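Ticket #4471: structure export looks truncated?
Reporter: QA, pipeline team
Priority: medium

Steps to reproduce: submit the single chain below to the structure queue and open the exported record.
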Amino acid sequence: MSATRPLIVIPGDDPMQLQGSPQLARLDAYGEVVLYRDRPIDDAEKIRRARDATCLINSRSSVTWPAGVLRQLPRLKIFAVCGIGTDAIDLEVARELGIDVRNLPGRTAGIVAEHALGLLLAIAKRAWFQTNELKQGRWSAMQNTYLRGTMLGLIGAGPIAAELARLAQAIGMQVQAWTFHPTPERARELGVRFVEFDELLASSDCVSLHVKLTDQTRGLIGRREFTLMKPGALFVNTARGAIVDTPALVEALNKGHLAGAGIDVFDEEPLRADHPLLGCQQVVLTPHNADQTPEGMELLNSGVVENVVAFFEGREQNRVV
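Actual output as written to the record:
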């Protein structure tokens, strides 16, 4: 590293996000850019890669930064993430150490919402199950679900939930929502009504999860919540895996209480070969790639680079901490 130029490190770009992006050239004016194509195997490797960094760009939320690691990065001034979620970083310690954390709220909301609708349609029409039946030489007669007129319950009321509400209403679904901080103004913006948490679970035909992972939301959906849902309900999660109790989800699916689940995020990533969700029949699973379209990649890459540029130029853009 140059003695005078800041070091900008991308510590684990796997799967590929920023490598090869023309956006990275914009950072050359602000520091020396070092990109690692593989994930660090442990905390010691994270520290080795990031020890001299002024800036870290976390392109993958599965690369986590706990307190013990952050405390060993004395030069670190800014942490920029390629997305909305900042749960990979110990924010309290970042605040204590004066590390600026920046995210990309709502930038790919429409893309993620379209993916969530795709998962919902896929489980409603039993796309994976019936494809697999045909591949096995079986002509099954299991019925599908007609979504027009059914009630979609949104857990969360941020930009992705707002986009999904619009898409769902366009195919004739009714929509209701729950959030920690409901207001009449937000209800009007979404074009939905806010209801209590248990009421949403009990009265929705489909439930889609759109809250960030915090101490409040970790394990928010468990056995009690799945029991409250209607028999035959459909469940979608494009938020974070740890918000859901996976054994409870598997149980609800295997007992037939849930008719299906579309899941993009998991309690462990990548999935191990014997993960219990892989044994469920009525699931459609994607590998945490809801925003991974060419358009989404460009939006994220340009956004995270712009956040870093804003930091070096002294602008308060998308600052979480």
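Status: closed, not a bug. The export was complete when the record was re-opened. Leaving a note from the reviewer for reference: The first strand starts at residue 7 and ends at 10.
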